[in-house]
Amino acid sequence: MKTEVEDLGGSQKKIICEIPSDEVQKEFDKQCKTLAREVEVRGFRKGKAPPSIIKRYFRQQIQQEVASQLVSSSLEEALKEHSLTPLGEPDIDAPAIEEEKDYSFSITLDVKPEIEIGDYEGIELEEEPTDVEEEELQKSLEELQKAHGDLKPIEEDRSIVEGDTALVDYNAFLDDEALPDHERKDVYMEITSSSVKEDVQEALLGAKVGDERKMDVDYPENYLDKKIAGKKVEYRLQVKKILVKELPKLDDEFAKDVGSYETLDALKDKLREEIGKEKKARSRRAIEESLLEVIVDRNAFEAPRSLVEARHAQMMKDARIHFLTKGLQMEEASEDYQKLEANLESLAERDLKKHLLIEAIAKKESIQVSDAEMEEKIKEIAEQHEQSLEKVKADIQKEENGLENFRSNLLRGKTLDFLLSKATIKDKGK
């Protein structure tokens, strides 16, 4: 077999293979014998039909098997001979194969790029402060208090004010024609800017029990329900009850009710700890991204197109699902779709470059994750989730390439720790 590799630019290669006729015939004979042992041909005992008969009855199947086997083995040999690491699925251009004739075909594929990594130390970064402010603690405490409050109907005769909760029924109309699919009963609406849309809040503020309020909603052209897509729908809301949330007193008894805390101060300490952990995690993610953005800009190389395309396709799929959950359909011909597609392609390429650069730096710095480190991390996860070590391991292994991906994630974290240790990090605002 003779192979030649053409450089198509970036990380894409084209492998041209030429297999002499004697090797082709040898594979034909081999596949013919294999098939003869497995099939039954009328007039012959199983395994006793001559090659000429087998080839006549199963010519197309034999040709496919021979071509498949030769392409597969040739690719394996070529990758080894030319020291190439393939990425993604190869594009195979293989014509029909014939007996006693030379066979030529080509394989186009992306290979892992050889990255000349450099200039990744001494990067200056700014870190968001992670101290827990008193206002943050108070807000968290109030949210917890609100979550444990009880809704009770108001006793006085008054209209809805901000902070109330309204129990409403509503109907929808398009050109005065009722839309039964959009009718809802006994819907609780908390009248705050964070809970309902501004137009809903404006419609209900000032209403009393028994009042009907109207509001218009303009639906976008790409709304899934084609009957109302691009139309103005009128909603009529009937107020059935006005309720207020009765909040529990913030004291030691409240702390005992919401968890195993003896005092309110103990609850505050726990909330402060959780807020601090979340702020540190957000700060860590942000500073990692800043670091990787700088490294990508400093180390130019072309990312493998097949992997960029695969990543881009997944991101577009996720975007479509996201819009579907909001009742919207992505119109491929629209300007917004094309803009999103271009933005996500750019993002997919940078994400892939970050991944490949981390791999390259880990290799250059001989950063590895040992089996002992894997075991220790799995043990840590088990303790955090109060699960057995065996269950956590089983959960990891049941995922596709579970252990390999787990090790890869640990290697990523370890490499980022190394890079951050080489960076100059300052507190933002100081």
Secondary-structure blueprint of this entry?
Layout: E1 2-7, E2 12-19, H1 21-38, H2 51-81, E3 86-93, E4 103-111, E5 124-127, H3 134-147, E6 150-153, E7 165-174, E8 177-178, E9 184-190, H4 198-204, E10 212-218, E11 232-246, H5 252-258, H6 264-298, H7 305-325, H8 335-364, H9 371-384, H10 389-397, H11 402-421, E12 424-427
Parallel strand pairs: 5-12
Antiparallel strand pairs: 1-2, 2-4, 3-4, 6-11, 7-8, 7-9, 7-11, 10-11
Structure characterization notes:
By secondary structure, the protein is of the alpha+beta class. The chain folds into 3 domains: 110 residues, 2-Layer Sandwich (Alpha-Beta Plaits), CATH 3.30.70; 97 residues, Chitinase A, domain 3, CATH 3.10.50.40; 168 residues, Trigger factor, C-terminal domain (Trigger factor, domain 2), CATH 1.10.3120. It is 48% helix and 20% strand. It contains 11 helices and 12 strands. The strands form 3 sheets. Strands 6, 7, 8, 9, 10 and 11 form a 6-stranded antiparallel β-sheet that branches. A 4-stranded antiparallel β-sheet has the order 1-2-4-3, sandwiched between helices. Strands 5-12 form a two-stranded parallel sheet. The chain is extended, with a radius of gyration of 33 Å. The mean pLDDT is 91.
